[in-house]
Amino acid sequence: MINRVFGKKRKSIAKKVIILSTILLLSHQGIFTAEGETFAKRPQLVPVVSFKSKNENFALSPNGGTLAMTDSGRLTILNLEARNCEELRAPAPQGYNKYFTAVSFADNNNRLLVISSRPEIWDLKTKTCLWVVQNTTKVCHAQLSPDGKNLLTIEETAATVWNVDKKKPLYRLEEAIESYFLNTHNSFWSNNGKLIALPTSKDFAVIVFSDDGSKTPRTLSGHTREVISVAFSPNQTMLATASFDKTIRLCCLETGNCLNVLEGHTKLCPNMFFTEDEQQVITPSVDGTVRVWDPQTGQCLKVLEGHEQVITTSAFCPKTGMLVTGSRDKTVRIWDVEGELLQIVPCSSCVDKVAFNEDGTMLAIGSGKNSKSAMTIQVFTLLQPKNTYFELLDSILDKSQPYSERSKKELSDLRKKEQDKKVTIERLWQLFGTQINSPEFDIDKAQLLLRQLEYLGVVIPEEVNRLMLQNTPDDKLFPLNEQRK
Fold first, then answer.
1. Is the predicted pLDDT of residue 441 greater than 60, yes or no?
2. Given this model, what pLDDT does residue 4 score?
3. Residues 392-400: contacts with CB within 8 Å, 24+ apart?
4. Statement: the pTM of the whole predicted model exceeds 0.90
5. In a domain, 7, yes or no
6. Domain check: are 226 and 261 in the same one?
């Protein structure tokens, strides 16, 4: 980052006026341009860490501060802020060889589940193993409730809900659970942790039951082949189920009635997502496309295309409305909820897993798990222009004394016009002009405004760039236009 663009504060106001006049003249001549309307909402991916690992699975904590990784019988924790990596070990029960298949966090960031035939629950704050589940039968999969207080274990033909603190079973579902085809990346818990949905091997149905067994389980049927994935809507009003029959069924959880059958994919859908307002259902498919549906009418609103091979993994952040898909075509694509492609991230191998943190500000990508060179794990920070650049201006400008009061109203006006990109750019130039002509002129703040213009896709003319660099110390030379390369 450049710390100085216009040289020292002692430079004459005359030079500043010359520079500003040139900027405004070129602006009126239409020289300043923006690179497409999607640029303003395109996230910037800032690399945090990238490395090759023998680990076969990973999970990103909800707050984005920790990456947990498993490799057979090893559990490794990477603190992304301190770049500190540590292996955690717990004594194995006698005669038991650990083989971890997956790892996941609860919403409280500190409670971690490591999945094997005898799942382990860890407290990452104290770095201690709280419990090794001594189940009577082999566990095929397990999931913590959103608050981390209860644990669901899925065996070959049954399921059990446990109280984690008391280490005791709360309820056992003695049904014919279909665990063989189940996509274990799904969340079987509702958002409030009160309901659980699991496919049964009887009539290709799905059974919905309460976490404590206090209510009679509800059976939802209608598929003609095995159910592979389930998804609760955010407010627990609907359940989506996807099957090998290539359809998605939307059911009302209150009545159990089928609301709509979504048809159009040519292959199955391992994952499904609801938007935060429950107005759309998003279904990435092995057929290489993503479809967005209206759950009330069953109408397909749009088809997202672009991957050249099957979609192998996907993740959705309801808070930002961003969807990320990974494919065998060695790319990760980031889409917005409106179906617009925002970014393409190239990978060296087939993409195995993608994961957001809770607020969508961080993205983890794993690729090449089955390659000879081991899995490559990349973690990025995602900067959202619509959500951050005016907050950044606020935080910087508020530090000035005489100028900040005048800036606040202008910044407030900018936010109101943020949806109009042309107006936003013009207002930023006006604010910059006020900065450069102010008796309290601050180089850092003026530079920040220019950086925001570049962030919106504005190309700084070479004439202006040259004038700025003439007044910049040699150790700070760095043309603004070079920052976007």
1. no
2. 36
3. 392/448, 392/452, 393/448, 393/449, 393/452, 396/444, 396/445, 396/448, 397/445, 400/440, 400/442, 400/445
4. no
5. no
6. yes
